[in-house]
UniProtKB/TrEMBL annotation:
One of its GO terms (cellular component) is plasma membrane. PROSITE patterns: ABC_TM1. It is a multi-pass membrane protein. Belongs to the binding-protein-dependent transport system permease family. It comes from Bordetella genomosp. 11. CDD domains: TM_PBP2. GO terms for biological process: transmembrane transport. Keywords: Cell inner membrane, Cell membrane, Membrane, Transmembrane, Transmembrane helix, Transport. It is found in: Cell inner membrane; Cell membrane. Residues 61-252 form the ABC transmembrane type-1 domain. This is Polyamine ABC transporter permease. The chain crosses the membrane at residues 12-38, 58-87, 99-123, 129-149, 230-253.
Amino acid sequence: MIARIGIRLLSWVLLAYLVLPLLVILGASLTTTSYLAFPPQGMTLQWYRQLMGDPSYLSAFATSGMLACAATAVAVVLALPCSLALARYRFPGRAAISALLMSPLVLPHVVLGAALLQFGSYFGLTRSFTALLVGHTVIVLPFVLRSVLAMMTPEQRALEEASADLGAGPLQTFFLVLLPQIRPGLVTGALFAFISSFINVELSIFNTTADLNTIPVKLFNYVQYTIDPTIAALSGATIVAAFLAIVILDLTVGLDMLSEPR
C-alpha cells in the first residue's frame, strides 16, 4: 500500500515537472510587459493578436502543417510495403536494407540537410517545398517503419494464412485482417512522424527561404535578434494546437486503444 502511494506521488511529481514549463510559457505569453516575465505582469492577449496579425507567421504555420501532413502520409505509404517485405520474406541484403531505412535515426539531421542541399542542386530541387518534403520523409520514415514492424508478429501471419484458406484475396486480407491488426503501430508511428517533422529545424534550415519558411526555423531566426513575449505567444499557440489535436485524436481514434491490436 505504501509502495503504491509512493509510486503515485512520484508519478504526479514527474508529471508536474514536465507540465510546469508549459504553464510558464503560457503565463509569459499573457504578460503586458515588452519582455518575457513570469509571473506575468498583468494579463493581455496583445502578443497573440500581434502573432495572428503577422502574415509571415501564419504562412510559416501553414507550411509546417502541410509539410508535416504530407511527409507523414508519404512515410505511411512507403512504410507499409517495406515493413511487409522485411517481416514476411527472407532475401539477400535484408539486414542491410533494414539498417539503411533506419539510419536517419542515428545520422545527425544537419548532415542529412547538407547532403540533401548538395544532392538536390543537381536536380533543381533546392530550397523548395519538394526538397523539404523529400528530406522530411527520409527522417520520419523510420518512426512509422519501426512501429509497424513491431506489430508484424507470427500470430498475425497465421491469421493472414487463415484468411487465405477461407477464400479471401490479398486485398481483402490486407484491409480486413492485416490493417486492423497493425493500426495501433500505424497511428503511433504517424504521430511520431508528424511531430518530428513539425518541430524539425536542422534539416529544414538548409532548404527554407524568406517566402518558404517553417515555424521552427522562423522561431530559430527570430530569437537570434529579438526576445519578447511574441516568442511565448507562438509557443503557447503551438501548445494549444497540440492539445486540441490530441483531444480530437482521442475522440476519433481512441488513444487508450493504441496499446493493443484491435
